[in-house]
Amino acid sequence: MKLEFSPLINSADQKVVIASHSFNRWLKEAKKAYTLQRIRIDSVDMVVRNGRPFPLFIKARCLAIAPTGESYDHTVLIRGLAVAILVVLICENRKYLLLVEQSRLPIASPSFLEIPAGMLDESDDSAAVAIKELSEETGLAVEKSQLKLLHPALAISCGILDEKVALYAVEISVNVAELEKFKNRKQSYDEENENIITRVIPYEKAAEVFLDSKGIAALYFYEKLRSGE
Asked: Global pTM?
């Protein structure tokens, strides 16, 4: 297999890409399914995480041979794995969803409502990352034993993006005062460039407000889990 880099990518960034967890995770999986002939890294979006350069997005052009013998010359956007959590709050025998509202410029939405989520980055422990994201985005503290796995690896945009999302659900019983505390809470993270407001909606209203696929999918698998299917 031939690995090439665009001349616009400096040698330091090339080394970061080659050593990155997300690139090597994707490469390992791709080699299991295809015969890779050439990978050309066209661009890399670098950020700083924990004081070190980190490749947020890696755009590659790949030439690969499938087991059937067919040749594919595709662009691949390597982002890594992610996690998303459907948070069900139970108050006085009624269910609510704890959601996060934030700006999503790619879809031109200054106030997009979705379930808490985040990237695994250099981790392979989706449950641990789920706990971390819940704490950071909502202030909710949970343990691994409370998480219910809904789907281990849901592909979001498989035509170009390698990202797969592990979906979890968590049910938390709260009183009225606790429920109120979750409403309209502001959370900000400079390193992640996130400004989040938590929202609480009645469970039955979820299908009316969800636009992203991970939220709809989480609802579907949660209902299947509840029905015992």
From this structure: 0.92
Per-residue model confidence as pLDDT tens for the chain (229 residues): 999 999 999 999 999 999 999 999 999 999 999 999 999 999 999 999 888 999 999 999 999 999 999 999 999 999 999 999 999 999 999 999 999 999 999 889 999 999 999 999 888 999 999 999 999 999 999 999 999 999 999 998 999 999 999 999 999 999 999 999 999 998 765 555 568 999 999 999 987 887 778 999 999 999 999 887 5
In the chain, at which residue ranges do the beta strands (DSSP E only) sit?
Answer: 2-5, 35-49, 52-65, 71-78, 82-91, 94-104, 109-114, 117-119, 148-155, 164-173, 186-189, 194-202
> Where among 45, 78, 111 does a domain terminate?
78
**Within this chain, do residues 71 and 37 fall inside the same structural domain, yes or no?**
yes
- For residue 18, the enclosing domain spans 2-78
Are 62 and 86 found together in one domain? no
Alpha carbon distance 63, 59 (integer Å): 14
